């Protein structure tokens, strides 16, 4: 497999591409970039889901966080990517961009509705990872709210003080670091009758069979392996959200069991 084929396989982790003559810079979600000897036109024909916003730029609409209309006629608009980069939008391409993004948003809202509103609590020491998971879920699923703390003990204290109707629908424990803290939190949650029925998932990086086994032994509802690659990580989190927030039947927030079944 050639270099270009390998690059195209990673298109999900590309935020945008910028062209210069017969060369193209590929910009990835992890902040890295790569220069390849192919024109932007070449990638435009290969990446059908991307949008050409300017003669020098091709964007992945999944990573657009905002756009600004041209201030005056004959001036360029601006599209803002999740990495903070602002790219010009050609005035002749402006309406095409808005139509494409609006259509994509309508389709996302239609295919991934969240019933009755869902809340997700996340424990992770990485502020960047926490913000990214929050973005992935809240941007993909209507009426979804994500809160995150950096230690399991903080989560447990918060849940103890919340009334039943304010308990989260889903809990994510990032065990890629501080595995002991996450497993301790998991055991505490599952031993507390009013918290035991909350679906609790453990996120692990790489192959860690010991962590997987210990998580299930502590009554984790699921253990999910996440990749270090931002694009793959994003797709994994969205798949987790799609199942647990739209397909799975979750316990109600009232009438939780007073004790664990024998």
UniProtKB/TrEMBL annotation:
Domain Response regulatory: 119-241
Superkingdom of this protein's organism: Bacteria
Annotated positions of the 4-aspartylphosphate modification: 174
Keywords: Phosphoprotein
GO molecular function: DNA binding
SMART domains associated with the record: LytTR (SM00850)
GO biological process terms held by the UniProt record: phosphorelay signal transduction system
A Pfam family annotated for this UniProt entry: LytTR
Protein name per UniProt: Response regulatory domain-containing protein
């Amino acid at each position: 497999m050639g270099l270009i084929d390998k690059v195209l396989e990673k298109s999900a982790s590309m935020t945008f591409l910028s062209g210069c003559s017969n060369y193209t810079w590929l910009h990835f979600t992890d902040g890295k970039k790569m220069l390849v000897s192919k024109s932007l036109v070449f990638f435009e024909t290969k990446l059908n889901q991307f949008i050409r916003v300017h003669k020098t730029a091709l964007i992945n609409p999944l990573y657009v966080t905002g756009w600004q209309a041209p201030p005056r006629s004959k001036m360029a608009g601006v599209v803002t990517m999740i990495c903070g980069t602002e790219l010009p939008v050609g005035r002749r391409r402006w309406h095409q961009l808005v139509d494409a993004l609006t259509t994509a948003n309508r389709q996302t809202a239609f295919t991934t509705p969240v019933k009755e509103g869902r809340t997700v609590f996340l424990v992770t020491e990485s502020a960047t990872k926490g913000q990214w998971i929050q973005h992935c879920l809240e941007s993909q699923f209507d009426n979804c709210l994500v809160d995150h703390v950096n230690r399991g003990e903080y989560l447990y204290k918060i849940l103890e003080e919340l009334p039943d109707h304010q308990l989260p629908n889903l809990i994510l424990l990032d065990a890629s670091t501080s595995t002991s803290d996450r497993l301790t939190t998991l055991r505490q949650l599952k031993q507390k009758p009013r918290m035991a029925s909350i679906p609790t998932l453990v996120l692990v990086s790489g192959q860690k069979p010991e962590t997987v086994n210990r998580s299930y032994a502590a009554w984790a509802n699921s253990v999910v392996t996440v990749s270090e690659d931002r694009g793959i990580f994003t797709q994994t989190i969205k798949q987790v959200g799609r199942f647990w927030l739209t397909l799975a039947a979750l316990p109600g927030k009232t009438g939780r069991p007073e004790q664990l079944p024998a």
